[in-house]
Fold:
Amino acid sequence: METELIEDVKTVFVSGGSPTVSYVSRKALESALLCIINTNRIISVTGQTKSGKTVLTSSFFKKRNPITVSCGDLTIRSTDDFWKTLHSLCRTPVSAEASIKTNTVEAKAGINLSLKGVVQASGSRNSSQQKVTKETVSPTPEDYKASVLAHLRKNMPKGYLIIDDFHYLGEKIKSDIVHGFKSLIFDGFNLVLVSIPHRDDDVVHLSKEMIGRLEKVRVNQWSVEELKEIATKGFKRYNIEISDEALSSMADEAYGTPHLMQDFCLKLSIRKIIDNSFAKGTIIYPSKKELHTIYHQVAESIGTPILSQISQGGREGRRKKYRLKNGQQGDVYDLTIMALCNMENDKTKISFARIYEGVKNQVSEMPPNQSQITNVLKRFANVATADNAANPIFDYDEKNHCIYISNPFLLFFLKWGNFGKERSLN
Structure:
């Protein structure tokens, strides 16, 4: 019974997927989409990482049977990859024919020789005839593209194509997509591009003909009340309520993203099922300690890979270990990360002065100099940009001597992760 209930709860609170029971409709955004579909324009849906833009589009367009291409896994690296991927999703046949010229030579002995290519025969009495035949050959990328566009024009003239994580694609691929669909869009086909905010004008830059034919829907971070509704709707399935204090705490710590709120609710539910306090008709009053334990668990599961990737950038060879006030040791990379983790207040924009002060507060000896910390921040930013140039999770502004962090997962980890707090840095 316990196992079955846990599995059921996993279908209610879905982090990183498309929930149904706990799905909260963002009516204003859905109304905006309703107003701009079927208007012979490209639809651009933008929002910061983990703002729920993918779930919004998939939920809104679900009943309209869209074709969806996801670019977030970086498997589409060329225009050929895109059209082949879309072709496989359309499940339409593609064929290519080549015209083959065949010369039929009548030899003296009366034997007909059919040879591909050009045949030169000696002797004035020989005669030849040229015949054109068709042979099927392997399709070219242009064949895939033509097949897809013809299929959509014939079978889905007013249909929907969603390209998720459009910002991951290279400029040449984006340009080919926009120009390829231009005629279809003018005739009523709906092309929906999902990307991050500062890349929503890419379409206009790629094709001046699309000026005036781009409609934008901006997906903002979720409000506290919207995040609370996720928990309320989900727990209502089991006729269970959550205390106002717990709801407010979880919504405040979710950094405006439904992904984190779903994860909090799932882990809280499982804990209550295991200790037999997940009973219908009850109100759950999780303690502050219990909620903090959940936050630490979520931070470790989502933040460690991100931070590990950044912190390893440029950490070659042996580096000096500094004695820390907590009795541990760490190099300049560890000190910088610890300074970020232990920083109070807003972490979306942090001045270099605050970071260096945080570094000095960690050590019990002479700290690294400022240039060393600057080099570390530059390397962190380079690694983040190399992994995701379209939307780096960490950016260092050398001119203004500050860093910017926009990724809610990294921000959450910096607050609730255990780096330098409960485990060794060595």
The CA atoms of residues 305 and 410 lie 10 Å apart. The two ends are 43 Å apart (CA to CA). The longest strand covers residues 96-106. The chain is about 45% helix and 15% strand.
